[in-house]
Fold:
Amino acid sequence: MDSNIENNNKKPILEAINLSKRYEDNALALDNVSFTIHPGEIFAMLGGNGAGKTTTINLFLNLIEPTSGDCKIDGVSCVSKPLEAKKKVAYVSENVMLYPDFTAMQNLDFFIKLGGRMNLSKDEYKSVLKRVGLQEDAFNKKLKGFSKGMRQKCGIAISILKDAPAILLDEPTSGLDPKAGAEFVNLLKELKKEGKAILMSTHDIFRAKDVADTIGIMNKGQLVMKKKQSEIHNEDLEQLYIKYMAGYMENAA
Amino acid sequence: MFKVMLKKEILQIISSNKFAISFAVCSILILLTFFVGANSYLLSRDQYEAAVQENIRGMDGITDWRMINHRIFLPPQPLAALVNGISNDIGRNINMEGMGELRAHDSKYNEDPIYAAFRFLDLNFIFQIILSLFAVLLLYNAINGEKELGTLRLTFSNSVSRSQYILSKIVGSFSAIIIPLLIPIAIGFILLPLMGVPMTSTDWISLLGIIFSGVLYFSVFLTLSIFISASTAKSSTSFLVLLIVWIASVIVIPRASILISGRLVDVPSVDEINSKKSHYMRQISGETLSAMGNFKPTSNNDIMREFNEFMDEINTERDEKVTKFNSQVNQERRNAQMEQEKLALNLSRVSPASSFYLISSSFAGTSMELEKNYHEQAKAYQKVFADFQREKEGMTTGGGMMFIVRKAGVEENPIDPSELPEFVFKPPSLESRINSALPDLGILFVYNFIFFLVGYVKFLKFDLR
Amino acid sequence: MLKLIVIKELKNIIQSPKFTATFTTLSVLLLLSFYIGINEYKYSLEQYNTATLLANDRVKDTRSWMGVSYSTYREPKPLQYLVGGINNDIGRYSTIVHSDEVKLRNSAYSDDPLFALFRNIDFSSIAMIVFSLFAILFSYNAINGEKEEGTLKLIFSNSVPRAKYIIGKIVGSWLGLVVPLLIPILLGLLLLLINNIYLNGTEWLSLVSLIFISIVYLTFFIALGTLVSSVTKSSVASFMILLVLWIVTVFIIPRVGVMSAAQMVEVPTISQIESQQDAYSKDRWQIYMDELSDKWEKRRAAMAGMTDEEKEAYEDDMSYAWMEEDDKARKQVEKDIADYNQKLNEDYVKRKIVLEQLALNFSRISPASLFQLAAMNLATSDIELKHRYEESMREYKNRFMDFAEKKQEESGESGMFTIKMSSDGGFKLNDGRQEGGLDVSELPKYVSPKQNYASLLNSIILDSVLLIIYSVICFGIAFAAFLRFDVR
Structure:
């Protein structure tokens, strides 16, 4: 509770303000979505395939332009000043695919410099790689031999090293084994302590409940539910999820 | 930031197996081409020298300059071995006579049909076919491949502008691909003098011109690949599109456009021309024959010399008529040919491969001009040769009828073959080579520029998701 | 089971967008090659017909059978325009004249270098370059691609024997590539018929064999693709390897083979040979002239002391005998020279054959060369084409010369060009020619060398058998490699 009060006093890092996106084929991918994420807060978006989770992330990354509304990172609009905004965000994709012919270190080096941190030492790279749980003998191996989990770890390492106030995670735990998944949750909690604002899309209801401060459920481009973790503490999230999805269906019908 | 991306681009290309294999293959082929080219130049130079000597040796013991069977040959050029052009297709040997039309015979391919069947390995071929294919192979997925890989999203989750990205992509891949290629080429350059190929400064500069245009042509395919890769969503699609474009521009367009447009313009066949000429010749030799009856010697001293001079006068007069007629007929054919050539070449220029071919053969001195050049120089030499014969014997050969009279019992002095004026073929000057290469160089520049620009614009609108 | 696999493979190929794109391209190219071939053939035939007519006209124009000159042309054959071979590179005609050796001159390319610039686009070059690329494009990931997609594992989770799978795979992909290809080829044949291109029985057989050989060639590359795909892990790697192999077999080995052979065997150039021949003939004529001068000196000596009238009477008496005697000597000279030339030519041809055999054997490592050699042999545009024609033209020249001599005798004219010159009488010319032209109706006809199908078959047997062996070996290795393939 205390942390929430504290957060409310600070200005939000990630803001979605009436975001809508209609594609050229007239499909409404995102329908008037709004939310804010404060420092030290994790917002988990749940929803089926095509619910609009990735579209939201794409809008924050300015990979597409919104039809209406705005999104801001640390107060900077992603629509009008995308380059400025993107300095303040790190991103981990669902299926991290880095350059297969580069080693882990080379990939890290490139993406971190791209993130604007030019003067990090090799040791700092290594310590973060260790922190995310990559074995040391893999540091200088080419990525093409890596498993999905190992690549995911590299992706997370990149986002940590960028040290941006906001982090966007697109299905970060898909494909991780239970042990790695648990490690990742711990890592998220550490990042949260560091005061990062984290937007995470996921299918993983249980883990979301475990780690998120706020949980949103998306369906057909709408944010159909948004509740604080404390509010749903005693509820069965799975039932809630199914209920909201079904409810939406009824509404739609 | 730009530097970081540039470095990554270079590193990415250089560390791929694809690059390692293509670089190795290209290096071997380039070196092989230089080696084989130098060797075949040396071989044909030996053959040329042997032929020249044999020609002189054949004159031994002959007592009359009009009885020599003199031939001139097109000397092999070092660059022609590296860029064949049409040098193997045109006749190289000319039977020299003081008058009449000169005809070059024995093209390399006619003499050695086996080469015609399999062709030669030359720089033009390596650049035109092999390097362009590797360019496509290396960059067909430059943009959409990164999208498939997911790195494009990751890259653009940073504060990177699109134009910065595409520029670093182009500059980076260019430097990563082109600079290494210069190594085997440089070794090839060194190989030439090492193997004893005499290169003049014109040759060197022309060779540089060939390499430069080769790189320019190569980069057309690089920019094209980036352009196509930025216009298609899937790398397998862009590869197929590029492969089809490659087949069309390297194999189909140059050939088809020449064949088709060549047939659009009607050029009278050589046989028709020859037949017209020989008909006229026959008609006019009747006149000569009757004119000969009018010979009246003025004195008894050197009646033969007097007769020769008389004949030479008739022959010259006849030759003038024949030449006039022939050149008129030739001109007709030549004009039609020029028109045909112009149309065909312009059509073929749709393909950068043709433009590159035209540039490299201009630089090597093996373009269509070679035939004209050789013919003109042979004609100039013919005058020299005719004057030489006239000076020695009072008349020249090739005018038709000729009388060689030997006085019984008189031992005549054999001729000294070393007195014969030598035929020296002058390859085109550097300036003329550059001039004829310029328009096509311009075309290649334009291709580069257009593909670059379109690729750039396409990427600005590229769907990054 | 096998049928199921074959059908799946067929569908897999034919339904892919890759197939639509490449198949369309290939069809367009094949039809283009037929279209251009037919047009080029028609054009050359027209040229040939005019040229032969003009050659006859020239003989008609001539006023004496003595020293008559004629030209024999190579008749264009339709298949030579589907498989260009060396057809455009070697001379189109030879002059048939007493004083000159038979020699094909004026190749189509040397007459019009424009067409030599980028060479021909004929059926064989399309087949050689594009068929092979096409085959590689569809077989490079035959095995490892299925592994990457995960379908291989799924297939072998059923009770499918490996041998059956690989056979089904090969048969399916072969059918999927070859059968569609037959469509544009058959359309091409239809084009031949529509354009009224006449082919005789042998030519039809050759054409069918040509198509057969091209399919064997395509099969080889399918086999090679399958082979490489079953010995490499990733499809990217197998594609690179295949592309390099393709470049090496199609472009490099044929050329390098021939060029390295040339640098091993020394063959004098034609100009060297001709200079030697010239030198000999000069020498020989010089000797003849010397003898002639001696003879005249003797003849004049015999007339010494005669009065002018006696001299004239004596000369009139003797002139025919003298002419006969001189003519005999002259013929001997010509024969000597011809023999000498023949000897040099034979020697030259022998050395050349050694070179050619060596070069061909080098290049036979490459299936592309095998295909090209077989195709050229079938279309009679092979390397021996020049030799064959020169041989037959030489034979024709003998017939022609005999005929001309006979005609000359019949005409009763001496045909000799005589000049009498004396200090007071000036010049008297007698060109010994009749007024008006010659009758060419009985002129012996030149017929191109005929090749029957048996001899053609003979000439392609080695290359086609080798090509088949290569394909079988590739399939064999692919088969064996797949039995051990790591399906995981």
